Amino acid sequence: MTEPLKILYVDDEDDIREIAGMSLELDPDIELRTAASGSAALAIVQEWLPDLILLDVMMPGMDGPETLARLKQDEVHGSVPVIFITARTRPEDIECFLGLGAEGVISKPFDPMTLATQARELFTRVKG
């Protein structure tokens, strides 16, 4: 039996976080935790090391890019791949997010039926 893919989903909007959570948990090989803010995500990562972080870009307080920057400063957790989930998907936006160190971008609104597959495909591409 293979280890489950551990995903941390971070979004400040309760309804989107709930839909994403239900969508990702449809995959029996995904272990999921969620966070409502960048600071909550950083706290979770200290106690539970995910394989992948799905991170909303626009959040109050600490936004996605700032959360990613703080993760990258951490020697232990800085190597966890981060994929932004955002409505900002113009080519120049995506280029900027990749330049910040994100491994990919999933557009909002996402398709709940394919979110787990998209996340898994991006993770596989990153980890080879």
Automatic annotation (TrEMBL):
Which Gene3D superfamilies does the record associate with it?
3.40.50.2300
Q: Which residues cross the membrane?
A: none
Keyword Transcription regulation annotated: yes
Name all Response regulatory domain ranges.
Answer: 6-123
Residues where 4-aspartylphosphate occurs? Answer: D56
| Swiss-Prot/TrEMBL keywords | Phosphoprotein, Transcription, Transcription regulation
Q: What is this protein called?
A: Response regulator
User: What Pfam families does the record tag this protein with?
Assistant: Response_reg
Top-level lineage group: Bacteria
| InterPro entries associated with the record | Bact_response_regulator, CheY-like_superfamily, Sig_transdc_resp-reg_receiver
Stored SUPFAM superfamilies: CheY-like
List the lineage, top down: Bacteria, Pseudomonadati, Pseudomonadota, Alphaproteobacteria, Hyphomicrobiales
Q: Which organism is it from?
A: Hoeflea algicola
